[in-house]
């Protein structure tokens, strides 16, 4: 029963995607965002802290106890969060341009993919 409800919802999403209209991009600039606010958010990011602790305890400490090795890794690890965030930002900007320029084609492909998912859910019930 739940699969049928999910399939109906997926069909609804596919239809909505097919008939969605192109929206205007807004060039809204926010002046309250600056380097220091981004730096503060990144330094206090719990995911980065957990990643650093996990990486140190699982992958570094069992293999070395050198002070200099731990110091180098300890300095390097916090920079992996901002580097991966930058990768996501640049990829997102590139994909946004691609999706905006080819919106109708991408909407058709995505709607067809959603319909295939809904069909596979319904076939799985039968």
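^ structure tokens above, recovered residues below v
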């Amino acid at each position: 029963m739940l699969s049928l409800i999910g399939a109906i919802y997926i069909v609804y999403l596919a239809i909505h995607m097919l008939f969605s209209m192109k929206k205007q991009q807004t060039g809204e600039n926010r002046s309250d965002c600056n380097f220091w606010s981004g730096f503060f958010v990144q330094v206090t990011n719990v995911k980065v802290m957990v990643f650093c602790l996990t990486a140190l305890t699982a992958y570094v400490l069992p293999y070395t106890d050198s002070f200099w090795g731990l110091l180098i890794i300890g300095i390097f690890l916090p920079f992996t969060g901002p580097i991966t965030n930058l990768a996501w930002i640049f990829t997102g900007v590139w994909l946004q341009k691609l999706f905006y320029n080819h919106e109708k084609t991408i909407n058709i492909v995505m709607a067809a993919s959603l319909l295939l998912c809904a069909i596979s859910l319904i076939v799985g019930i039968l």
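Residues 2-17+42-125 form one domain.
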